[in-house]
Amino acid sequence: MSCSPRRKERPVERWDEELAELSGRVRHWPAGAALFREGDGADWVVVLRSGRVKVTCSTAAGAEVVLWILGPGEVLGESAALGERERPVSAAALEPVTGLCLPASSFAAHLRARPLVMSSLVRLLGRRLREAEEKLVELYSVDTLGRVTRRLVELADRYGARCPAGLRITLPLSQEELAGWTGSSRIATAKALRVLRDHGWIETGRREIVIRNVDALRRRAGRSSAGSTGGLQRGRVSGAVPRQA
């Protein structure tokens, strides 16, 4: 009697490759469309194949807070396979997105059958939790200019493409979305961007940012604190923590 060799388990690097064998439905979302909303029923998981998505939650005042930005190869809505009945967060396409939608039951069965894959998911959830906690600490210890600078450095590292002026951020973020990601008001974020433009470190356009001096941004981000100006005009941007994003 012959049997097929058992697949060797390994830590998950790309969830689209790991879950390719599972049956699901391929869906497409245009830019700006909601993949799901906070409070929706949670009965399926999305594996991103192309495009990038913002994952958000809402404050009691109704402001949007950006938690993570996810791209191809990543999974979202995974809490549906872990017993959540309602979505704890919202997800929306920042650009045209294609994803494989899997029933939560299929994803859960896959996790039970492959302990190393379950371990990879636990590490993924732990990493996302740490990122959220770090940004919460930033909210109370880093001024608005510092938080904006840190997010710009992160964008440059993840989505920067060389151009004649420096690094063009290929992720189409609006000023409101950047404000939600930094935990700042739109007005405070606009002031921070103006300071950075005045110093010649960035250029901005509609949903477009070009980093002209990433080293200067890294230095400012590395010493950002509520009591540090980093050599910039702190009076231009309040160091107080806004109550709404």
UniProtKB/TrEMBL annotation:
Domain Cyclic nucleotide-binding: 27-107
Cited SMART domains: cNMP, HTH_CRP
Ranges where the record places region Disordered: 222-245
GO MF: DNA binding; DNA-binding transcription factor activity
HTH crp-type domain ranges (all copies): 142-215
Keywords annotated in UniProt: DNA-binding, Transcription, Transcription regulation
Cited Pfam families: cNMP_binding, HTH_Crp_2
InterPro entries linked: cNMP-bd_dom, cNMP-bd_dom_sf, Env_Response_Regulators, HTH_CRP, RmlC-like_jellyroll, WH-like_DNA-bd_sf, WH_DNA-bd_sf
Gene3D superfamilies: Jelly Rolls, Winged helix-like DNA-binding domain superfamily/Winged helix DNA-binding domain
Gene Ontology annotations for the cellular component aspect, listed alphabetically: cytosol
PANTHER family xref list: CRP FAMILY TRANSCRIPTIONAL REGULATORY PROTEIN (PTHR24567), HTH-TYPE TRANSCRIPTIONAL REGULATOR ARCR (PTHR24567:SF74)
Protein name, entry field: Cyclic nucleotide-binding domain-containing protein
